[in-house]
Amino acid sequence: MSWFYLFVAGLFEIAWVVGLKYTDGFTRPLPSIATAVALIASMVLLGLAVRDLPLGTGYAVWTGIGTLGAAAFGVFLFNEPATLMRLACIGLIAAGIVGLKLSSSA
Question: What is the mean pLDDT of the chain?
Protein backbone atom coordinates (compact mmCIF):
# COMPACT_ATOMS: atom_id res chain seq x y z
CA MET A 1 0.00 0.00 0.00
CA SER A 2 2.94 2.34 0.66
CA TRP A 3 4.00 2.27 -2.98
CA PHE A 4 0.44 3.09 -4.02
CA TYR A 5 0.38 6.06 -1.62
CA LEU A 6 3.73 7.17 -3.00
CA PHE A 7 2.56 6.93 -6.60
CA VAL A 8 -0.60 8.94 -5.91
CA ALA A 9 1.46 11.46 -3.91
CA GLY A 10 3.64 11.85 -6.99
CA LEU A 11 0.58 12.49 -9.15
CA PHE A 12 -0.58 15.18 -6.75
CA GLU A 13 2.92 16.64 -6.83
CA ILE A 14 2.65 16.93 -10.60
CA ALA A 15 -0.73 18.64 -10.13
CA TRP A 16 0.57 21.27 -7.71
CA VAL A 17 3.75 21.93 -9.65
CA VAL A 18 1.84 22.45 -12.90
CA GLY A 19 -0.76 24.40 -10.94
CA LEU A 20 1.89 26.90 -9.92
CA LYS A 21 2.05 28.07 -13.52
CA TYR A 22 -1.69 28.78 -13.50
CA THR A 23 -1.74 30.66 -10.18
CA ASP A 24 0.10 33.61 -11.72
CA GLY A 25 2.07 34.12 -8.53
CA PHE A 26 -0.93 33.15 -6.38
CA THR A 27 -2.94 36.09 -7.71
CA ARG A 28 -5.66 33.86 -9.23
CA PRO A 29 -7.88 32.40 -6.46
CA LEU A 30 -9.21 29.17 -8.00
CA PRO A 31 -5.92 27.89 -9.39
CA SER A 32 -4.25 28.92 -6.12
CA ILE A 33 -6.74 26.95 -4.03
CA ALA A 34 -6.49 23.90 -6.31
CA THR A 35 -2.69 24.07 -6.14
CA ALA A 36 -2.74 24.30 -2.35
CA VAL A 37 -5.13 21.34 -2.07
CA ALA A 38 -2.93 19.24 -4.35
CA LEU A 39 0.15 20.23 -2.32
CA ILE A 40 -1.47 19.19 0.95
CA ALA A 41 -2.74 15.92 -0.53
CA SER A 42 0.72 15.18 -1.91
CA MET A 43 2.40 15.79 1.44
CA VAL A 44 -0.15 13.73 3.39
CA LEU A 45 0.24 10.79 1.03
CA LEU A 46 4.03 11.08 1.07
CA GLY A 47 3.86 11.01 4.86
CA LEU A 48 1.76 7.85 4.77
CA ALA A 49 4.14 6.22 2.29
CA VAL A 50 7.29 6.86 4.31
CA ARG A 51 5.82 5.17 7.36
CA ASP A 52 6.89 1.90 5.72
CA LEU A 53 9.31 2.95 2.98
CA PRO A 54 12.81 4.29 3.60
CA LEU A 55 12.70 8.09 3.70
CA GLY A 56 15.39 8.54 1.04
CA THR A 57 13.69 6.13 -1.33
CA GLY A 58 10.26 7.65 -0.80
CA TYR A 59 11.45 11.20 -1.25
CA ALA A 60 13.55 10.39 -4.31
CA VAL A 61 10.69 8.55 -6.01
CA TRP A 62 8.20 11.29 -5.09
CA THR A 63 10.37 14.05 -6.51
CA GLY A 64 11.22 11.88 -9.51
CA ILE A 65 7.56 11.35 -10.37
CA GLY A 66 7.00 15.07 -9.97
CA THR A 67 9.99 15.87 -12.15
CA LEU A 68 8.89 13.51 -14.91
CA GLY A 69 5.35 14.86 -14.87
CA ALA A 70 6.41 18.50 -14.71
CA ALA A 71 8.80 18.00 -17.61
CA ALA A 72 6.15 16.22 -19.70
CA PHE A 73 3.49 18.83 -19.01
CA GLY A 74 6.04 21.56 -19.67
CA VAL A 75 6.61 20.16 -23.14
CA PHE A 76 2.95 19.52 -23.95
CA LEU A 77 1.24 22.48 -22.27
CA PHE A 78 3.88 25.21 -22.20
CA ASN A 79 5.88 24.46 -25.37
CA GLU A 80 9.12 23.85 -23.49
CA PRO A 81 11.88 22.28 -25.60
CA ALA A 82 12.04 18.51 -26.00
CA THR A 83 15.65 18.22 -27.06
CA LEU A 84 17.39 14.88 -27.25
CA MET A 85 19.64 15.76 -24.29
CA ARG A 86 16.67 16.81 -22.17
CA LEU A 87 14.73 13.66 -23.00
CA ALA A 88 17.79 11.51 -22.25
CA CYS A 89 18.19 13.13 -18.84
CA ILE A 90 14.48 12.66 -18.09
CA GLY A 91 14.95 9.00 -19.07
CA LEU A 92 17.74 8.72 -16.51
CA ILE A 93 15.38 10.01 -13.83
CA ALA A 94 12.80 7.41 -14.85
CA ALA A 95 15.47 4.70 -14.72
CA GLY A 96 16.40 5.86 -11.22
CA ILE A 97 12.80 5.57 -10.05
CA VAL A 98 12.53 2.05 -11.45
CA GLY A 99 15.87 1.14 -9.87
CA LEU A 100 14.77 2.39 -6.46
CA LYS A 101 11.53 0.43 -6.70
CA LEU A 102 13.35 -2.76 -7.74
CA SER A 103 15.92 -2.42 -4.98
CA SER A 104 13.36 -1.72 -2.25
CA SER A 105 12.39 -4.45 0.17
CA ALA A 106 9.10 -2.74 1.13
Answer: 95
